[in-house]
Amino acid sequence: MLILGLQRLVVLETPKTGSLALRAMLAPYTLPMSDDAARHTGHYGFVQHHAAALTEAFGGRLETVAVVRGPLQRMQSWYRYRLRPKIRGLPASTRGYSFEEFMLAYLDGSKPQMANVGRQDRFVGWTGESAGVDHVFDYKQLGLLEAFFSDRTGAALSLPVRNMSPLSDGVDYTLSDAVLARYHAQNAEEFALYRAVAAQGHLQRPGLRS
Prior knowledge:
Blueprint: E1 2-4, E2 9-11, H1 19-26, H2 43-49, H3 51-58, E3 63-68, H4 71-81, H5 99-108, H6 120-123, E4 135-138, H7 142-153, H8 177-186, H9 188-200, E5 202-204
Parallel strand pairs: 2-3, 3-4
Antiparallel strand pairs: 1-2, 4-5
Helix pairs in contact: 5-8
Protein backbone atom coordinates (compact mmCIF):
# COMPACT_ATOMS: atom_id res chain seq x y z
CA MET A 1 0.00 0.00 0.00
CA LEU A 2 1.41 3.36 -1.07
CA ILE A 3 0.26 6.60 0.54
CA LEU A 4 0.67 9.87 -1.37
CA GLY A 5 -0.26 12.55 1.15
CA LEU A 6 -0.11 15.70 -0.98
CA GLN A 7 -1.99 13.99 -3.79
CA ARG A 8 -4.48 12.45 -1.33
CA LEU A 9 -4.15 9.03 -2.93
CA VAL A 10 -3.63 5.49 -1.69
CA VAL A 11 -2.37 2.82 -4.09
CA LEU A 12 -3.57 -0.69 -3.31
CA GLU A 13 -0.97 -2.96 -4.88
CA THR A 14 -2.65 -5.83 -6.68
CA PRO A 15 -0.17 -8.73 -6.87
CA LYS A 16 1.33 -9.43 -10.32
CA THR A 17 0.28 -6.12 -11.89
CA GLY A 18 3.62 -4.30 -12.00
CA SER A 19 3.58 -2.94 -8.45
CA LEU A 20 7.39 -2.77 -8.23
CA ALA A 21 7.50 -0.45 -11.22
CA LEU A 22 4.67 1.61 -9.74
CA ARG A 23 6.55 1.88 -6.44
CA ALA A 24 9.64 3.10 -8.27
CA MET A 25 7.72 5.70 -10.27
CA LEU A 26 5.92 7.06 -7.21
CA ALA A 27 8.85 6.88 -4.77
CA PRO A 28 9.39 10.69 -4.69
CA TYR A 29 5.76 11.22 -3.63
CA THR A 30 5.20 8.30 -1.25
CA LEU A 31 5.11 8.91 2.49
CA PRO A 32 7.41 6.86 4.78
CA MET A 33 4.37 5.41 6.57
CA SER A 34 3.81 3.32 3.44
CA ASP A 35 6.75 1.15 4.49
CA ASP A 36 4.87 0.00 7.60
CA ALA A 37 1.72 -1.02 5.70
CA ALA A 38 1.16 -4.48 4.26
CA ARG A 39 2.07 -4.38 0.58
CA HIS A 40 -0.93 -6.18 -0.88
CA THR A 41 -3.78 -4.83 1.21
CA GLY A 42 -7.05 -5.02 -0.75
CA HIS A 43 -10.10 -2.79 -0.62
CA TYR A 44 -11.85 -4.45 2.33
CA GLY A 45 -8.65 -4.67 4.37
CA PHE A 46 -8.00 -1.00 3.67
CA VAL A 47 -11.51 0.02 4.74
CA GLN A 48 -11.35 -2.09 7.88
CA HIS A 49 -7.85 -1.29 9.08
CA HIS A 50 -6.60 1.94 7.51
CA ALA A 51 -9.27 4.21 6.01
CA ALA A 52 -10.54 5.81 9.22
CA ALA A 53 -7.06 6.57 10.58
CA LEU A 54 -5.92 8.09 7.29
CA THR A 55 -9.10 10.15 6.97
CA GLU A 56 -8.47 11.56 10.43
CA ALA A 57 -4.76 12.14 9.83
CA PHE A 58 -5.27 13.97 6.54
CA GLY A 59 -8.51 15.76 7.40
CA GLY A 60 -10.57 14.01 4.77
CA ARG A 61 -10.94 10.93 2.64
CA LEU A 62 -8.10 9.72 0.40
CA GLU A 63 -8.93 8.21 -2.99
CA THR A 64 -7.83 4.66 -3.75
CA VAL A 65 -6.14 3.36 -6.90
CA ALA A 66 -5.49 -0.18 -8.16
CA VAL A 67 -4.47 -2.00 -11.33
CA VAL A 68 -6.03 -5.22 -12.64
CA ARG A 69 -4.86 -7.64 -15.28
CA GLY A 70 -6.46 -10.20 -17.59
CA PRO A 71 -7.24 -13.10 -15.21
CA LEU A 72 -5.66 -15.85 -17.31
CA GLN A 73 -2.53 -13.77 -18.03
CA ARG A 74 -2.20 -13.15 -14.32
CA MET A 75 -2.40 -16.87 -13.59
CA GLN A 76 0.31 -17.45 -16.17
CA SER A 77 2.45 -14.84 -14.41
CA TRP A 78 1.96 -16.56 -11.05
CA TYR A 79 2.86 -19.93 -12.51
CA ARG A 80 6.00 -18.52 -14.14
CA TYR A 81 6.99 -16.65 -10.98
CA ARG A 82 6.79 -19.81 -8.92
CA LEU A 83 9.04 -21.67 -11.38
CA ARG A 84 12.02 -19.58 -10.28
CA PRO A 85 15.06 -21.54 -9.03
CA LYS A 86 15.10 -19.70 -5.68
CA ILE A 87 12.08 -21.69 -4.42
CA ARG A 88 12.84 -25.00 -6.13
CA GLY A 89 11.80 -27.87 -3.85
CA LEU A 90 9.57 -25.70 -1.65
CA PRO A 91 5.78 -26.21 -1.40
CA ALA A 92 5.17 -22.94 -3.25
CA SER A 93 7.17 -24.03 -6.31
CA THR A 94 5.38 -24.94 -9.55
CA ARG A 95 8.46 -26.71 -10.89
CA GLY A 96 7.53 -30.21 -11.97
CA TYR A 97 3.90 -29.26 -12.58
CA SER A 98 2.37 -28.37 -15.92
CA PHE A 99 0.36 -25.19 -16.22
CA GLU A 100 -2.80 -27.30 -16.41
CA GLU A 101 -1.87 -29.10 -13.18
CA PHE A 102 -1.27 -25.71 -11.54
CA MET A 103 -4.68 -24.51 -12.71
CA LEU A 104 -6.39 -27.66 -11.47
CA ALA A 105 -4.72 -27.25 -8.08
CA TYR A 106 -6.07 -23.70 -7.98
CA LEU A 107 -9.57 -24.74 -9.02
CA ASP A 108 -9.70 -27.70 -6.63
CA GLY A 109 -8.12 -25.89 -3.69
CA SER A 110 -5.45 -28.57 -3.44
CA LYS A 111 -1.71 -27.93 -2.96
CA PRO A 112 -2.60 -24.52 -1.47
CA GLN A 113 0.87 -22.97 -1.33
CA MET A 114 1.71 -23.73 -4.95
CA ALA A 115 -1.69 -22.54 -6.19
CA ASN A 116 -2.46 -19.82 -3.63
CA VAL A 117 -3.71 -16.99 -5.85
CA GLY A 118 -6.22 -14.34 -4.77
CA ARG A 119 -8.98 -12.99 -6.98
CA GLN A 120 -8.88 -9.44 -8.29
CA ASP A 121 -12.63 -8.88 -8.01
CA ARG A 122 -12.33 -9.43 -4.26
CA PHE A 123 -9.20 -7.30 -4.06
CA VAL A 124 -10.91 -4.21 -5.52
CA GLY A 125 -14.30 -4.79 -3.88
CA TRP A 126 -16.18 -5.56 -7.10
CA THR A 127 -19.96 -5.72 -6.61
CA GLY A 128 -20.83 -6.98 -10.06
CA GLU A 129 -21.52 -3.44 -11.24
CA SER A 130 -18.78 -1.27 -9.74
CA ALA A 131 -15.60 -1.48 -7.69
CA GLY A 132 -15.05 -0.24 -4.16
CA VAL A 133 -11.67 1.13 -5.23
CA ASP A 134 -12.08 4.63 -6.64
CA HIS A 135 -9.81 4.28 -9.68
CA VAL A 136 -9.10 0.92 -11.33
CA PHE A 137 -6.71 0.79 -14.28
CA ASP A 138 -6.09 -1.83 -16.94
CA TYR A 139 -2.61 -3.40 -16.88
CA LYS A 140 -2.62 -3.43 -20.70
CA GLN A 141 -3.31 0.33 -20.88
CA LEU A 142 -0.78 1.66 -18.38
CA GLY A 143 -0.36 4.88 -20.34
CA LEU A 144 -3.64 5.94 -18.71
CA LEU A 145 -2.20 5.22 -15.27
CA GLU A 146 0.92 7.25 -16.08
CA ALA A 147 -1.25 10.13 -17.28
CA PHE A 148 -3.37 9.97 -14.12
CA PHE A 149 -0.39 10.21 -11.79
CA SER A 150 1.29 12.82 -13.97
CA ASP A 151 -1.82 14.97 -13.64
CA ARG A 152 -2.06 14.45 -9.88
CA THR A 153 1.64 15.13 -9.20
CA GLY A 154 2.19 17.85 -11.81
CA ALA A 155 5.21 15.97 -13.20
CA ALA A 156 5.72 13.89 -16.35
CA LEU A 157 5.88 10.34 -14.96
CA SER A 158 6.58 7.05 -16.69
CA LEU A 159 6.80 3.53 -15.38
CA PRO A 160 10.28 1.99 -15.39
CA VAL A 161 10.79 -1.64 -16.34
CA ARG A 162 10.80 -3.76 -13.19
CA ASN A 163 10.68 -7.54 -12.76
CA MET A 164 9.45 -8.15 -16.32
CA SER A 165 9.62 -11.59 -17.91
CA PRO A 166 10.56 -11.85 -21.60
CA LEU A 167 7.65 -12.07 -24.00
CA SER A 168 9.00 -15.38 -25.29
CA ASP A 169 9.66 -17.19 -22.03
CA GLY A 170 9.50 -20.76 -23.34
CA VAL A 171 6.82 -21.78 -20.83
CA ASP A 172 3.99 -23.98 -22.06
CA TYR A 173 0.64 -22.48 -21.05
CA THR A 174 -1.51 -25.07 -22.80
CA LEU A 175 -4.90 -25.70 -21.17
CA SER A 176 -7.60 -28.17 -22.14
CA ASP A 177 -10.94 -26.69 -23.15
CA ALA A 178 -12.53 -28.27 -20.08
CA VAL A 179 -10.12 -26.65 -17.61
CA LEU A 180 -10.36 -23.28 -19.36
CA ALA A 181 -14.17 -23.42 -19.28
CA ARG A 182 -14.11 -24.37 -15.61
CA TYR A 183 -11.78 -21.47 -14.82
CA HIS A 184 -14.06 -19.00 -16.62
CA ALA A 185 -17.11 -20.34 -14.78
CA GLN A 186 -15.46 -20.38 -11.36
CA ASN A 187 -13.99 -16.90 -11.78
CA ALA A 188 -16.85 -15.28 -13.67
CA GLU A 189 -16.88 -12.19 -11.45
CA GLU A 190 -13.17 -11.60 -11.96
CA PHE A 191 -13.63 -11.80 -15.73
CA ALA A 192 -16.61 -9.42 -15.49
CA LEU A 193 -14.48 -6.94 -13.55
CA TYR A 194 -11.69 -7.10 -16.09
CA ARG A 195 -14.06 -6.65 -19.04
CA ALA A 196 -15.48 -3.51 -17.39
CA VAL A 197 -12.01 -2.08 -16.73
CA ALA A 198 -10.57 -3.03 -20.12
CA ALA A 199 -13.49 -1.38 -21.92
CA GLN A 200 -12.52 2.00 -20.46
CA GLY A 201 -8.91 1.58 -19.40
CA HIS A 202 -9.67 3.60 -16.27
CA LEU A 203 -12.79 2.61 -14.35
CA GLN A 204 -13.85 5.29 -11.91
CA ARG A 205 -16.20 4.61 -9.02
CA PRO A 206 -19.70 6.06 -9.68
CA GLY A 207 -20.37 9.23 -7.73
CA LEU A 208 -16.70 10.12 -7.32
CA ARG A 209 -16.07 13.81 -7.83
CA SER A 210 -13.74 14.48 -10.76
